[in-house]
Design goal:
127 residues, mainly alpha, 76% helix, 0% strand, Four Helix Bundle (Hemerythrin (Met), subunit A)
Amino acid sequence: MPTADNSSEMESSEMKVAVQQCQKLLAHAWMVRTFVKHSPEAEDFPELMILPRTVFDVSRSLESRKDDPSAYFRQLKKKLHRLQGAAAEFAEHAPVASTHLNFQQAVISFNACVEGLEEHCRQIFPS
């Protein structure tokens, strides 16, 4: 896969496919966001609201760059730590808010989204 350091390959079809794959992962994150935002538990546990706010912020900032893979992945790299933090906080607070299977699955789903985005960043920005 091309890297961010190789600008001649940044507009390659591989990079565009990677953006599409990330957009799919963010669509899953958006559904978790919607579930949490509209859950009655969110009223009693405002700690849960970091996830909806973070997913909204990251999704909107990346959406405006989806036609420029280089800019998209630079922005994703900048925002990834916020998603990781939201995932950690959600995993901590969700079981306190509810032991319902929906919340358990939401934690798993959101973690999978973040892990997928991390993997794309590792491929684009190898250490």
